[in-house]
Amino acid sequence: MAETITEETIIGEVMERYPGSVEVFRKYFGKGCYTCPGSRVEDISFGATMHNADVGTVLRELNDLASKK
Fold first, then answer.
1. I need a surface site. Which of 1, 17, 31, 63 has the fewest CB within 10 A?
2. Full-model pTM
3. Considering only CA atoms, which of 47, 38, 64 is closest in space to residue 8?
4. pLDDT tens, residue by residue, 27-65
5. Which contacts (CB < 8 Å, 24+ apart) does range 44-49 have?
6. Phi, psi (degrees; rounded to nearest 5) at 34
7. How far is residue 29's CA from residue 8's CA, in Å, rounded to a whole number?
């Protein structure tokens, strides 16, 4: 069973554990998210705020992806 991804989950950890999540981050945070050094320390809530994305929408897509792994 997949762990639940939350607002506090670090972006880089999600991308490492679920490689398909790169597309979700690219969709909402831009194409450079997976190469950004900040992805190792910034959580999803911060990324959503910085990129004016709805954190709930991002989390739904990430958790849907994680549940299919």
1. 1
2. 0.90
3. 47
4. 999 887 778 888 899 999 999 999 999 999 999 999 999
5. 44/5, 44/6, 44/7, 44/8, 44/9, 44/10, 44/11, 44/14, 45/7, 45/8, 47/11, 48/7
6. -70, -15
7. 16
